[in-house]
Each structure stands twice: as C-alpha cells, then as structure tokens.
From TrEMBL:
Naturally occurring in which organism (per UniProt): Pseudooceanicola nanhaiensis
Keywords noted in UniProt: Ligase
Molecular functions (GO terms): ligase activity; RNA endonuclease activity
Coiled coil region boundaries: none
InterPro entries given in the database record: MBL, RibonucZ/Hydroxyglut_hydro, Xnuc_lig_assoc
Record protein name field: DNA ligase-associated DEXH box helicase
C-alpha cells in the first residue's frame, strides 16, 4: 500500500486509517493524537485525546477539565488498531512530542513543531529515523538563521543597564516562550523579580510545579507599586497587551518582543518593537536541513510554512519531498 494511503490530509487534519486517528486535528474528531499544547495544534472537543502527560495538563489548564471525552497519557509503545505509535521529545515547549507511527510496513514521524536549540523548559529534540518525515517549515527560508538565545538576552540586559529609568516590556507567548525567556534571564544571572501579565500566571505556575525553576515571579498589576517602581524592571506579557492601556502603567517602556520573526526588521517596525529579540522555539533553515539529513527519510512531507523553498533545496540534494497544504496551523494566539 502506498504511503499516502496510510497517512493523508483530510479536512479535519492528518488521518491514519489503520489506527483510526488524526494527528493535531483542526476540527473535533473521535480520536486525536496531539503533539503539544499550542492552540493551533491542541483544540478542545475531541472524543479522545492521546498526548504526553504535560500536554494533557496544559490542555486542561487552557480549555477546562472537560476539553475531551477521555484522555490517555502517551507512554512507551502503543497499539491503535493496525498502527503502532510512539511519542518522542520535540524540544519545542513543555510536553511537546513528535509522533512516530508504524502502519502498513511504513514508519512515519510527525514532528508537529520542533526546536534544535537547547531549550531549558523542554526535553531536547530526538532524531527518529523513518521512511516518511513530516516537518514543519515555519522558518524554511535561508534568511532564517537564529542566533544564540543567550546573546539575545544579553541585549536585553544591556538595554536595562543603559536605560535604568525605563521599564522593559517583553512580548512573549503564554506557553513556552514566556517561560523560556524567564529561564534564559535566570541563567544569565538576573535574580531580581520578573513581573508577568495575568494571562501568563497559570502556565508559569504549572511550569514551576513541573520543576522548572522560574524564580521570583510577581504580578505586573500590583496596585501597591507606583509607576516609578517599575523603572529598570522586566515585565513579560503577551504582545497584544502592548496596544492596550495596560502598558501605560509603566515608565517610558522599552518594547521588546521575543520571536524568530524579529529577524525581519520590517516586522519589528510594524509592531512598534524597539528591542527585537530573535528567540525562536522552531527549527531555523540550517536546523531543518540538518534534521532531515540525520533522520534520512525516503521522502519528506512539508507542512505549515515555506513549503516551496524547502522542497527546492531538498530537490537539489536529490531528496524526494511533497507539500501537504494542511490548513489551520499558524502562530500561537497572543491572548
């Protein structure tokens, strides 16, 4: 049986008929395998969800305890119908995983989103040899070569030293990026309190419960603090908060944003970002190519990103590839 009869796109998402399940479905389905807790991959309303324990916990935090009918923790080798399934670390966010699927004599690996840089809040990416490798392509252009995250944090600390009278507001998505920025700051020696927007509190608390040492975190809405008290302090918030009156409580704020997209200076200017921090939880161009070489699949299937550029590069290396044209996978919502 051909590989594209064993795993293929449907309007609901990527479907495996042998196991009768979808991976990261964009619409409710009877059985979903979920790679990680970002809202463009983990949606409520499925009949059953199989995911890592941490992803299940994160979905319950975001959607409520009744986000699915039944849930199962992904552990070891699991048999679903005629398919064998294993989860492997993806390095993207806490609990993120790649899904290895063996069915009809073919081994697939669905990566979801993944990162090859060291991530202090996620278990490191594990290359898994396979026949068909299904990769994201979020940053699949040669221009995207992400710098050392520690060097980006050094820029933030240098700005605080240069402008001690100003608050520094750092835009970071609620799951993964906010906690990674906090950990990078701690590793760089920032022991002072870090102030966080209310929308980050529950997920930061969960990371701390999971043993991620985030340190002293305080609410940025502390009414006992005067505006001047935030001078020289770091405040984390979803980027959408900067357009609201919420940001006006801080003294002459330096607006920063931690994202791989900050490598594109026009994006930073459009968002009014004074201090772009190129910190990404996705694979950049060199890491995409390196990963495909390591996994060495017979064919690479490409989704949600720059499919054409990566296909062209793989063709130059005599590697087979095809686009999946899956819809519904975008950036993590900012709210």
């Amino acid at each position: 049986m051909a590989a594209d009869d064993l795993l293929f796109p449907t309007p609901e998402g990527l479907y495996c008929p042998g196991g009768d399940f979808h991976v990261d479905p964009v619409r409710p389905v009877p059985r979903a395998l979920v790679t990680h807790g970002h809202a463009d991959h983990a949606r409520p309303g499925n009949g059953a969800v199989l995911a890592t324990r941490q992803t299940l916990d994160i979905m319950a935090i975001r959607y409520g305890a009744d986000f699915t009918g039944t849930r199962q923790v992904a552990e070891g080798t699991m048999t679903l119908g005629d398919a064998t399934v294993r989860f492997h670390p993806a390095g993207h966010v806490l609990g993120s995983a790649q899904v290895e699927i063996e069915t009809g004599g073919t081994r697939f690996v669905v990566t979801g989103d993944y990162c090859r840089h060291r991530n202090p809040v996620a278990e490191g990416f594990e290359p898994v040899p396979c026949d068909i490798f299904i990769t994201e392509a979020t940053f699949a252009l040669p221009v995207f070569r992400h710098p050392d995250p520690a060097a980006e944090i050094a820029k933030l600390l240098a700005s605080i030293e240069a402008f001690p009278e100003r608050a520094h507001l750092v835009g970071a998505y609620a799951l993964g990026k906010a906690q990674r920025v906090i950990m990078l700051l701690r590793e760089a020696g920032w022991d002072a309190p870090i102030y966080i927007h209310g929308s980050l509190e529950r997920l930061c608390r969960y990371h701390a419960e999971q043993g991620v040492p985030l340190g002293d975190l305080r609410p940025a809405t502390d009414d006992s603090m005067a505006k001047a008290d935030f001078a020289g302090q770091i405040i984390l918030a979803p980027p959408s908060a900067f357009a609201a009156t919420w940001a006006q409580r801080f003294p002459d704020p330096v607006i920063a944003f931690a994202s791989g997209w900050m490598q594109i200076r026009a994006r930073a200017r459009q968002r009014g970002v004074e201090l772009p921090l190129v910190i990404s939880d996705h694979a950049d161009w060199p890491d995409l190519l390196r990963t495909i070489e390591e996994v060495n699949p017979e064919e690479t299937w490409i989704t949600h990103g720059r499919e054409e550029a990566l296909m062209r590069q793989l063709a130059l290396g005599q590697r087979r590839s095809r686009p999946l044209h899956l819809i519904g996978f975008e950036e993590e919502p900012e709210g």
